[in-house]
Amino acid sequence: MIKIAKFGGSSVADAEHFKKIKAIVDADPGRRFVVVSACGRRFSGDTKVTDLLYLVDAHVNYHVSCDDLLEDIGQRYFDIADDLGLTYPIREEFAKFAEGARAGKFTTEYLVSRGEYFTARLMAEYLGLPFIDAADMVAFHHDGTLSMSRTTELVKKNAREGGFLMPGFYGATKEGRIKLLDRGGGDISGSILAQCLGADLYENWTDVSGFLSADPRIVPSAQPIPRITYEELRELSYMGASVLHEEAVFPVREAGIPLVIKNTNAPEDPGTIISETAKEGESEPIITGIAGKRGFIAIAVSRDRTKSRIGFMRRALSVFERYGVSVEHMPTGVDQFAAVVQASDVKDSLWSLIADIKEEVEPLEIEVVENLALIATVGRNLRGRPGVSGHLFGKLGEAGVSVRMITQGCDEINIICGVEEKDFDLAIATIYDAFCEKDGTIVRTDELNPVSAPL
Ligand code: ASP
């Protein structure tokens, strides 16, 4: 059994968390392949080592002293090493690094990657696992994209069968130049490793017990989702439910490897498993989760009926393309369509974009609806089930929420509604309430009473 265990920044924040990880790794002989992020926040208001390193880089570029920053970063590693009695020469190694950083010798990527490098060095010793540098495992092209074919070769050549520990977030080009993945990319490193090693499971350890079915700040009783499919995850992550880096699902999905989100601070919690297939006899929820985002606007374009219908939308949309603006949704009517976009994407260009649409399609009218929030109600069990959207919108109506926009794709796993930002929290709480039991758990499909109202 090969399990890849990836521990995120908050899971490796200090010596106490190192101890928790040792207990988790020791508890299961399959957990011998470990990936770590750089030390994250120890408490709210604390700063992640990665962020501090970016700050060091900026100071160096502006020729401002970064001595205090480097001292703070070093101290975090020294504290861990001292508390755990580690022998890795962290003071000497860090001093060499700090000297190079001050002298401006490093690229941004190299400098920032040392966050995971030093964390991994200490963790490898503490867990008694061999350290393998990500620069010898994860291969990049010169343009900064991953080379999966060379990564596969490198992993075959350098991985140790009995287990090892690798820093996440970075890799290197053929010439050894360090390159970084996206922020939060340690999740991707773990997933790539799982794919290349043909793992049986990818465990992603973080500080929450899985994906919650709604934002707990709005729905305090929201529970972790026991199982979610890749499609559902994509829909919810897109709407801002962020636990895992979005791109981390692709390598394991391709290889058919299940991924589980687990909590380092509560390892006995089942977490959320991301998988296409249910366990036998597993009961299914009516909906999987609700997520939403503020900050959208709708640009509604009405056609002048004396002008041709053909090509009207294409020409209007070409303007958005020219401005590099992604159209997120597009509710349509007979002679009108609305392009829903993120307000931040058109912050500086809205009025010139509208002027260009006017020129391109000579519309009857263009209306801009601001301060929209979108809410996605996601669930694999929505498909073919009459009454769900009726129930949802009925409840929103009862709560006095005016729905400004509705979309649902033909795959029927997602009902998206647009509401005014001021109604955002109320709408999410109302939808959750519409599909949950008194104790806050989501109604299961096998609990539905076929005689009573649809739902
Ligand atoms: N340390 C990196 C970050 O803060 C990568 C990661 O944590 O996955 O973005």
Tell me briefly what this model is.
By secondary structure, the chain is of the alpha/beta class. The chain contains 13 helices and 14 strands. It has two domains: 205 residues, Carbamate kinase (3-Layer(aba) Sandwich), CATH 3.40.1160.10; 159 residues, VC0802-like.
Question: Characteristics of this structure?
Answer:
globular; five-stranded antiparallel beta sheet; alpha/beta; Carbamate kinase; binds aspartic acid; 18% strand
Would you spell out the secondary-structure blueprint of this structure?
Blueprint: E1 3-7, H1 15-26, E2 33-36, H2 49-61, H3 67-84, H4 90-102, H5 108-127, H6 148-158, E3 164-167, E4 170-172, E5 178-180, H7 186-197, E6 201-206, E7 227-228, H8 230-238, H9 249-254, E8 259-263, E9 272-274, E10 289-302, H10 312-322, E11 336-342, H11 350-361, E12 365-378, H12 388-398, E13 403-408, E14 414-420, H13 424-434
Parallel strand pairs: 1-2, 1-6, 2-3, 6-8, 7-9
Antiparallel strand pairs: 4-5, 8-9, 10-11, 10-12, 12-14, 13-14
Residues 8-9, 37-38, 48, 50, 115, 168-169, 183-187 line the site of aspartic acid.
Describe the structure.
It contains 13 helices and 14 strands. The two termini are 42 Å apart. It folds into two domains: 3-207, Carbamate kinase; 289-447, VC0802-like. By secondary structure, it is an alpha/beta fold. It has helices spanning 15-26, 49-61, 67-84, 90-102, 108-127, 148-158, 186-197, 230-238, 249-254, 312-322, 350-361, 388-398, 424-434; strands at 3-7, 33-36, 164-167, 170-172, 178-180, 201-206, 227-228, 259-263, 272-274, 289-302, 336-342, 365-378, 403-408, 414-420. The strands form three sheets. The protein has a seven-stranded mixed sheet, with helices on both faces. 35% of the residues lie in helices and 18% in strands. It is globular, with a radius of gyration of 25 Å. Helix 3 (67-84) packs antiparallel against helix 4 (90-102). The structure holds aspartic acid. Residues 8-9, 37-38, 48, 50, 115, 168-169, 183-187 line the site of aspartic acid.
